[in-house]
Amino acid sequence: RNLTLADIMGNAQDLTGSSFVLDKGSSHGVKVGDNVIRGNYLIGIIREVSTQRSLADFITSPSSLIAVRDIDVSNRTEGIAEGQHGSSITMKRILPNEEIKRGDTIVTSGKDGIYLPGLIVGKVTDIVEVPTEPLKSAYMETMIDLNKQTKVFILTSPAL
Q1: Pair 76, 134 in one domain
Q2: Do residues 69 and 132 both lie within one domain?
């Protein structure tokens, strides 16, 4: 994978603020599905590409579904991180016997084939266990302010 430095040109014209425009496009090797990162933090994923620009969804976007795991517990608890209307993330589909606690760091597992493994998604803020539900959930917050980022990297695949 190659790293392509990109400037965030602003949020797209959606009401949730869950997507953003980048100043790099297909002429720079950017493709739909490329991961957008800042350091080890996952910022989003490329959704649309034109020659000179691209549109990406933040990980807090409602369309964002990410296979994740907890790196702070020995059993590597897994689940699916789902964006919540541009403001937060919920980790769902956690088995009842799996260990997870407040403050745990959640990273991409790579099992979805979409996101590279090991990118930081967020930190657990609360655990939700409903007695009538077979699976539990966890609320998460991003560890960096997504809306204050101005420069990011796009993980592009090298041309064949």
Answers
A1: yes
A2: yes
- Residue 76: what pLDDT? 86
- Domains held by the chain: number: 2
Q: Do 135 and 71 share a structural domain?
A: yes
**pLDDT-based confidence at 1, cuts 50/70/90?**
confident
Burial category of 149 from C-beta neighbours within 10 Å (exposed 0-12, middle 13-18, buried 19 and up): middle
Report pLDDT digits (tens) over 131-140. 898 999 999 9
Q: Domain span at residue 105? A: 65-141
**Looking at the structure, do residues 94 and 117 belong to the same domain, yes or no?**
yes
